[in-house]
Amino acid sequence: MNNLCYNPFRAAIRRGQKTTRLGGQRITRYLFSLLACLAFTLPFRPVAASEQTIYLVRHAEKISDGSNNPPLSPRGRQRAEWYAGYFADKNLSTLYSTDFRRTLETAGPVARVTGLKVRTYDPGDLAALARELRQLDGAILVVGHSNTTPLLAGLLSGQALPPLDEQHYDRIFIITIDNEGATRLHMDHSDPRRE
């Protein structure tokens, strides 16, 4: 059986030559032959496609004080701290929040543990935010509201989602976008979870 990979050292030994006196051309031919053999015998391992992950959460529970910009309730502050633990190991690269007290207070503990600065966005122009998010790399967290969070999840995933009612604070929408732009939407929940 013929050996497809040419080895000048083996050939030189067969001819009785010393292997140290091989010409440059033979060495070059050997190296080329070796690389060709390796290329055809090593298994092909494609580079794994990197996915972009966008997490969307509604702000945590707020105090019902009748104002337009209420702070978080004690339970809401507890949930915001839970988010800090949840997102601590998600390798977030960007953190967004609307410019309301309840969303900024929800994002605050996450910003503290990740070292990220909170970027504010206009909840009235979610289409522009969705385009901006698609241009970013890495994992992103967006803190929004009961009506904007499912709407933004729908814009990113292509699925129509109903708004959250006043009792739903535990939903974590997770949208993954692969290198070809295909999206997947799934859901996680924060603690305490609403049954």
UniProtKB/TrEMBL annotation:
Coiled coil: none annotated. It comes from the Bacteria. SUPFAM superfamilies: Phosphoglycerate mutase-like. Pfam families: His_Phos_1 (PF00300). This is Histidine phosphatase family protein. It comes from Emcibacter nanhaiensis.
